[in-house]
Specification:
Radius of gyration: 41 Å
Distance between the termini: 93 Å
CATH topology: Maf protein
CATH architecture: Alpha-Beta Complex
Structural class: alpha/beta
CATH class: Alpha Beta
Number of helices: 8
Shape: elongated
């Protein structure tokens, strides 16, 4: 009887130690690999006694980079126009604008309403753009002033002082329409928009007329005046957007803003 009790105590002690080792191995990866248990304990699974080979060491090298991660550049716009005012408008809104006037463009005004005339001239300009180009976007535009008495007669850029004077005299003290067409090339397609604004001139004196002519603000401007320049004091916008009078449709500028978020 005493021998049986002694044998039972020894085996209980052995099982207790094995159980302790098992619990330690569960929480320690090294013990999981190093401890070897006997199969006599039902709580333990047999473990191979084959020695564990050490992992092969691999030399890793890391190159030091002194250059920062390149950031996506700003959208580059090619303005195919000689208009100083158009250039300023885009440069105020976008950081990368290149201005390069088109050459050999037929800007003769076709017959028909001024709204169609300005569209046709804008399309001719877009057809004159030579591809490929070093830009994300190309912008061409045309602006014409409609004669107050004839919707089929347009007032373009005056040729000289006499021409500019006759235009301002015709518009003085009256309202007139200004049409702009803008074509934007982006993502391999053209987008053309046409808009109209109404401007009213005050009945300014002849002395003011002389000042306007001598300021040379009429040069390169449809109708012989610059709403954002010397004429601004004697004209007001009745309807539409100022951008349309200055050379771009408002919708085209919104489109460029959207493109700047994509390109």
């Amino acid at each position: 009887m005493l021998r049986w009790i002694s044998w039972l105590q020894r085996h209980l002690q052995r099982c207790k130690c094995a159980l302790l080792e098992f619990l330690l191995a569960c929480f320690h990866p090294i013990l999981q690999r190093e401890l070897v248990f006997g199969s006599w304990c039902p709580l333990l699974r047999p473990v191979s006694r084959k020695p564990i080979s050490p992992l092969k060491l691999t030399l890793q090298t890391f190159a030091k980079c002194d250059e920062g991660i390149p950031l996506r550049g700003a959208m580059r716009i090619l303005l195919a126009s000689a208009s100083t005012r158009r250039g300023l408008i885009l440069q105020e809104r976008f950081s990368d604008v290149v201005q390069k006037p088109l050459t050999n463009v037929d800007e003769r005004v076709p017959r028909g309403p001024v709204s169609e005339q300005v569209q046709q001239v804008s399309l001719r300009k877009s057809s004159a753009v030579s591809f490929p180009i070093d830009a994300d976007v190309v912008v061409v535009a045309d602006t014409l002033v409609e004669d107050p008495d004839d919707e089929n007669a347009s007032l373009g850029q005056p040729e000289d002082v006499t021409h500019a004077t006759s235009m301002l005299l015709r518009l003085r003290g009256r309202r007139h329409r200004v049409w702009s067409a803008t074509s934007v090339y982006a993502m391999e397609r053209w987008n053309t928009t046409i808009e109209c604004s109404i401007v009213e001139f005050s009945d300014f004196s002849d002395d003011v007329l002389v000042e306007l002519i001598e300021s040379h603000s009429w040069k390169g401007k449809a109708g012989g005046y610059d709403l954002a320049g010397a004429m601004g004091e004697y004209a007001r916008l009745v309807e539409g957007s100022e951008s349309t009078v200055l050379g771009f449709t408002e919708e085209s500028l919104d489109y460029l803003d959207d493109l700047s978020q994509l390109l």
